[in-house]
Model the fold of this input.
Amino acid sequence: MTDTFLAKGKRKKLVDELRTKGIKDEEVLRAINTVPRHEFMDPAFLHHAYTDKAFPISSGQTISQPYTVAIQTSLLNVKKRDKILEIGTGSGYQCAVLAEMGAKVYTIERHRELFILAQRTLISLGYSADFFYGDGYEGKPRYGPFDGIVITAATPEIPEKLQYQLKIGGRMVVPVGDSSSQVMTLVIRSGEADFEYSSHGAFVFVPMLKGTVNNQM
Ligand code: SAH
Done:
């Protein structure tokens, strides 16, 4: 499938909708207007790709709702060449939005099937990122420290190890809560052992789970 005028038109409408919902970061809106979200979903669901909803992908997971991607990316305050670690590659859509903004993205997925599929999609669209199959709770200390860390799965508490993979001044965006609802939490590492926390609304994500799933296709 390729990008079409129809898809471009639908994307522009989606961006207008995100604006009315309060998204202000022009670079985030530009990236969402550019990345063809339908390429990250089963072709049967083309018509769902540009509604502001999460949607099922392989391995029983979901592609995040565009509004959620927009909020998480805005809170990260991404600048060109920032080093961003993403936990939960999933479809690869959030990763592509970050890459479109000029970030150097490191992304970890615990399902082997998604790890493979997402790489394929990103490559076919001409985006580059570093993909890892593994447990995101460990982070990627060898590649850090990071300007930003985005966790795209729900965790009952802020993963301690990941906080320490931030640069001083770095930001981590993580949905914290139980399985029914989570609070979008922004963590700013303000000093060697100092962290500032703020809350940014309620969301629902699939859970962040330990270990890996070797569900090769
Ligand atoms: N960012 C994705 C959203 C995917 S949903 C997108 O844009 O499509 C969350 C993903 O997190 C799922 O694919 C799930 O398998 C993955 N995940 C959950 N726990 C994880 C962990 N500990 N390490 C890495 N990935 C994890």
Summary: DSSP finds six helices and nine strands in the chain. The two ends are 21 Å apart (CA to CA). The mean pLDDT is 96. The longest strand covers residues 166-177.
